[in-house]
Every structure is written in C-alpha cells, then in structure tokens.
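Subject: for your reference before the review

Hello V.,

The reviewers asked for a structural picture of the protein, and I figured it would be easier to keep everything in one thread rather than splitting it across files. Below is the amino acid sequence we used in the manuscript, unchanged from the supplementary table.
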Amino acid sequence: MSSNQISASAQLSVPAASARRLEVRGVDISTLPRIEASGGIFYDDAGQPRDLLRILADHAINYVRLRLWHTPAHGYDDLAHVKGMAARIKEAGMGFLLDFHYSDTWADPGKQYKPAAWRELDYEGLKEAVYEYTRRVIAELQHQGTAPEIVQIGNEITNGMLWPEGRLDGSDDQFARLAGLLKAGIAGVRDAGSQAGIMLHLDQGGKNSLCRWWFDNIIAEGVAFDIIGLSFYGYWHGQLSDLADNLSDLARRYGKELIVVETAYPHTLADRDGTPNIVRTESQLVAGYPATVQGQTNWLRDLMNVVAGTPGGLGKGVFYWEPAWLALPHCGWNPEDPTSGNEWENQTLFDCDGHVLSSLDVFLEFAVERS
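And here is what came back from the structure prediction:
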C-alpha cells in the first residue's frame, strides 16, 4: 500500500471535503520553554532558524493551548511560565486556550492527583481552593493583557478530577461531587471578569455511549459550559468513523461547539534518544496510515475533514498535541526525572533536529473556504 492510500475502513470514515474552514487551528506547545532552555532550535521552510510561534503562524496556526500545573516539581508548566508564553502568544496574534490540570503533574483518565498544597482539604475546602486558584490565575493573566479566549476546567476528566473527592466511582452522588468542583472553577473564571469559552474535556473521542453518559449527567447537575473538548488518537480511540459519528450525535444532542483538543500521529517509528516511544511498532499504527511524513499528513487532513463536516457548523477546530517536543536532554516525559528521554519525538510536526515537516502545511488547507 502506498503512503498516500488509506484502507477501505479508513476511506469509509472520512466525509467528502468540507466547504468550511476550521475556525480554530491549534497546537499545544506547553513544553516549548523547556525545549528552548535546553537549546532547541526550530527551522522554517527555508531552513532558517526562527521563533517557533512565527513558523506556526506562517502555517495558519491561530490558537495555542497551554497546560497549567499548580506546583510542578520540574519548575515548568507553572503560572510564571504560562504567563510568559501567553505574552508571546498574544504578540503573535493568536488565540489562547488555558488548560487547568488542577494537579502538580499530569492529569488524565488514569490519574487525577490533587496538588500537594490541597492534599489535606475536605470537599468544601477543595471547592474553595479551586475557586480561589482559578480566579487568581485568570485575574493575573487579564492584568497583564493576556486573557485566554478558552478556559479548560480539568484535563481529560472522563473519570472525574481531584481524586478521591471528585472521582466518578459509581456512587450515587458521583456527578454531584464532580459538578461542585467544576462549578467552582467556572465561577472562578467568571468572577475574575472573564467571558472566555468554558471547555469540558474528555478522552475517548470516538466513544459515543461514554460521552452521552458523561455530558447527560453533567448537564443534569446544572454545569454551565460552552465547548466540548475531545481527545482523539487513532491508535487508542477507534476509527475516524467513530469520531465522525460521535461528533454528529453530540452536535445534535447538545448544540455545543466541538473541538478535538488533542491528536497526534507518528511520522516515523525511529527512536532518537533511547527512551521507547509511545508508538513504536507497526502493530500500533492505524490501518492505512504508515509512520511516514505522508502518513502523518493524511491522518491530520482526514481528521480535520471529519471535524469540519460536523453538522450545524459546530465542529470548530483541532489542536495538535506537542508538535514541537524535540528529543533533547532535560526535556523528558517524566517530570520526576528531568534527564529522562522523550517518548513523543516521533509524533512531532518537526524532525528531530527541529526542521519543519510538510505535514504542518495541512493547517493552511483549513484556513480558507473550500468548494
């Protein structure tokens, strides 16, 4: 199979090219301060060293997502670095999505660890801490003129957040407890004077039954939000047809804007630094999408076409997760070990030496109306 072919199952999953542009063409480049501090350099299409945000802007990227950890052990992803990056984002003329993890480290469906500073708080104290922290962060960003356009309350909170208090554990009050924490965060955004769009973010973007269960219950608890954010990695979350079906159902069921806020795909299976990559074997790949630059290009284009084809124009955009996470010393995956390797460098939109790949051009295709 050639690199520009897709399998029959993949072909069925991709709707005809949409006449719509995608309003949000984003990237999550939270690791950039660590990359730059470790000597990382990025090169544009002409092979010239250039600021990463300028390269991204030249390829029609118009939004940047940043994660925020409370007190990270490695010293990055904290408020000081987020504020510095937010200033650069605004200077580049881009929109800004702020992703509250409400943790000192990674938060995802398998782990939602409370910050150490909140570890001894009871449920009511935890709600107050979420409110005050969120309000303070938003106020500080507004004060420096870098208010986010979108605020994400929690990261991949499919199983809840701030465990155990906010965990979806099968108890009768599980959604009431989670809703209380979400409402506290949302109130913090609003009481800081922000009208940012509020996003709630789940993984498993191809699993409609899970999304319906989760959002039906959260809406029943009176949580007011604006945007549904989904992760969709093809090697974890199903076929593109599953994503298309889920987006269509969610659009009709809830009438909310929808964004695939995390996706990525490998351009190679080669390992740069000796740390095994998350996707490292042929068996992990999505059928019809080889681990080549062309395969990566096709994956991103097909996924963006799926989002653009969401009914009612509610598919607003796509964020590529960590497209510039180069394999450099002190830029490893494990925040407890700053010398550890990088498990992601083969899924970037730059080669291992920082040269832009042609797959980044896909964003240009969705910056204009098409017929």
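For the response letter, the relevant points are probably these. The first strand starts at residue 24 and ends at 28. The domain at 8-365 is CATH 3.20.20.80 (TIM Barrel).

Happy to draft the paragraph if you're swamped.

O.
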